[in-house]
């Protein structure tokens, strides 16, 4: 065992792990020396990759550097025609390299693939796949802001006071400074309508409940009419607790609660409408669009062709790799059919043209359909422009 010296980098080599794979924090202290806030730099890589997967990326990256060095020496064994560096490793090779079992190696490869850090290209039967390590996406950096809340806690032994620091997540920004999360600041003075007398420091809702005989103002809760006493005087009563009977709540209040609720259902697809809400029915003008019945059969034919092409057998793992269209994805394809610029035969032809080693066949398909639709719209626009020119030229010739 020895200390690290200034010559350490010249005597030993290390694996390089990208900094975006790790989280780091910056803390801010006040003039009194107490912690005020914290900023945390993190990313999707840091949250979702296991430590073994991060180390696997570093090891494979080191092998890529060796391949680049060999290429500069004139060896072209591990560089393809596009200048991309690839690796040749069987599962057994990776097991020996990482010192892990087969199940763990397959899990690590899946982690890297799911985050776009690794892709494989099949070389045919009985030949190992080419492994292409992908560069990291620096735009995935996120900046999380936290404020501190310090509370004094008394421990059980000797009743000693200790300060407990709690971090409250207030905001998250992406690498470009755009706010992607903003916490809602909650008021500390929350009204409690079930306390004695029904009073609280905060104001009641602006819209009062039904007026009473005593006549309440908008800014004050209604009061009970004063009861006469034996001596002829009146006895002041505390404000009445609000009536919580749900059958007597006005519809406008229900709509307010419905609009501000954080549990509103999200729209699943263009085919399935939103669930019905309390006292609020959907109108035809506001309902989501439906895919007409004839497209269901066409979509099933398209899905069968897509699923059949991209269900592949991996010779290295002995497992099938399935790319199955989900209901939502089929609805995306149906949108192009419904617009009328793309036919089902053209969709099937596009599926046949997708390369077998494509890592994102759905994105390839949707982009191709979008390009085709855009070109068709431009074609229609040009034809309409030409017809208009011909019409006005003929009209000008007749009047001239």
Automatic annotation (TrEMBL):
- Spell out the Low complexity composition-biased ranges: 228-239
Amino acid composition bias (Polar residues), ranges on this chain: 242-252
Q: Where is the Replication initiator A N-terminal domain?
A: 45-112
Q: What does UniProt give as the signal peptide span?
A: none
Ranges annotated as biased composition (Basic and acidic residues): 253-270
Annotated stretches, region: Disordered: 190-287
Question: InterPro entries in the record, alphabetically?
Answer: RepA_N
Q: What name is this protein filed under?
A: Replication initiator A N-terminal domain-containing protein
- State the organism of origin: Streptococcus ovuberis
């Amino acid at each position: 065992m020895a200390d690290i010296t200034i010559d350490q980098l010249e005597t030993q080599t290390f694996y390089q792990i990208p900094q975006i794979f790790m989280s780091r924090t910056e803390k801010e202290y006040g003039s009194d020396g107490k912690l005020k806030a914290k900023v945390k730099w993190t990313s999707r890589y840091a949250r979702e990759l296991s430590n073994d997967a991060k180390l696997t990326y570093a090891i494979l990256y080191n092998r890529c550097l060796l391949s680049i060095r060999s290429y500069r020496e004139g060896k072209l064994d591990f560089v393809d025609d596009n200048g991309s560096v690839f690796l040749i490793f069987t599962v057994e090779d990776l097991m020996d390299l990482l010192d892990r079992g087969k199940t763990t190696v397959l899990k690590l490869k899946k982690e890297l693939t799911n985050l776009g850090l690794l892709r494989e290209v099949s070389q045919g039967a009985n030949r190992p796949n080419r492994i292409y390590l992908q560069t990291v996406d620096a735009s995935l950096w996120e900046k999380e802001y936290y404020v501190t809340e310090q509370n004094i806690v008394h421990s059980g032994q000797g009743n000693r006071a200790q300060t407990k620091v709690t971090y409250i997540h207030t905001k998250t920004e992406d690498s470009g400074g755009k706010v992607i999360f903003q916490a809602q600041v909650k008021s500390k003075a929350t009204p409690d309508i079930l306390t004695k007398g029904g009073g609280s420091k905060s104001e009641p809702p602006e819209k009062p409940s039904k007026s009473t005989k005593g006549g309440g103002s908008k800014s004050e809760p209604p009061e009970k009419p004063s009861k006469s006493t034996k001596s002829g005087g009146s006895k002041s009563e505390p404000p009445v607790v609000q009536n919580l009977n749900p059958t007597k709540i006005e519809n406008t209040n229900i709509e307010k609660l419905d609009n501000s609720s954080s549990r509103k259902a999200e729209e699943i697809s263009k085919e399935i409408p939103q669930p019905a809400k309390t006292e609020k029915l959907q109108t035809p003008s506001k309902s989501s669009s439906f895919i007409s019945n004839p497209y269901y059969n066409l979509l099933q034919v398209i899905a069968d062709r897509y699923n059949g092409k991209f269900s592949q057998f991996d010779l290295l793992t002995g497992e099938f790799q399935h790319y199955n269209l989900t209901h939502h994805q089929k609805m995306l394809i149906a949108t192009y059919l419904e617009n009328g610029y793309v036919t089902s035969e053209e969709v099937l032809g596009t599926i046949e043209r997708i390369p077998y080693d494509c890592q994102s066949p759905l994105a390839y398909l949707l982009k191709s359909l979008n390009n085709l639709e855009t070109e068709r719209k431009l074609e229609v626009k040009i034809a309409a422009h030409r017809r208009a020119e011909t019409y006005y030229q003929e009209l000008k010739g007749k009047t001239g």
